[in-house]
Amino acid sequence: MKILLISNQTGDEKTVGNPILQRMLRSLKKKSVVEEAHFAPFLKSSLWASLREISRQSRCHDVVHVHFGGIYALLVWFFLLGARCPKLITFHGTDIHARSIHTAKRKRDKLKIRLNQWASFLCIILYSRPGFVAEELKGYVPRILGRKMRKKSFVQPLGVDYSLFLPMEKTEAQKALDITDKHPILFSDISNTSVKRRDLAQAIVERLPGHYSLLIMCGVTPEKVPLYINACDCLLLTSDEEGSPNIIRECLALDKQVFSVEVGDAAKQLQGLTNSLIISRDPDTAAQQIVEALKMPYTDNTRETLRPRLDFDLLNEKTIQLYQNLLG
Q1: Phi–psi pair at 161, nearest 5 degrees
Q2: Which residue ranges of the chain lie beneath pLDDT 70?
């Protein structure tokens, strides 16, 4: 079975794009039933060349799987018409719920967000199988598409590369990053966007007693992410919008406590845990909740207890089964 992954979330020349796509690609290549797995980036800088290459490669693969929706995914679909193979698409959050339209300031940006959402809805009809990284995202799809979506939609489980995300001593990780703070609390804001609500996270940390500080992870290469997680005491997530935040899975895979506001599927990810919890958006209440949780002994051991739903190698078995079913 030959699989082609496509995404507009591309990195520099040293990567294959979004970290999630990197991990999925590595995991697929480990499977004996996968003969080949390739990544084809969608590059705005060389649009025509990218589309021609995507069209060419799609004819040589058994399954084409596009990640992230929007106008780009609609454009890619037209260039996949010559490929006689199943064409899947997985939506990751903002491409479906478009909640960033509430924080966008310019009319041009608002229009772009809305057009991308409508294009994603159209992709649900056009692609062989539409997928969602969280069941909750299906609630944003118009009712008129409900019947068609129920017949062919699937949930695309995201995970963590356990061979990359390895636990290490906090002091060792802090030394590697040249961090001297005693109790850093991780805040992931890779692209430095206002929707992540760094201001709220800072307000919460300022209300914590003792020597806690906010360790901001921004513009970090995927290989350094485990270092940042290992160097911190816990994760603080305060976003206004999320789909299925992978940073939660990454922290749980390294046995770190997670404190998150109610957003995306955060509550589902933390369900049943003792040391991690959903916190209030009020800074005073949230700080109090975190203090009480940090007093408790750590017993969750999430790296092992949650491995069946965290380890990408295990989760990708479901995706491969879906590919095989589509191929008959």
Answers
A1: -80, 100
A2: 10-18, 191-192
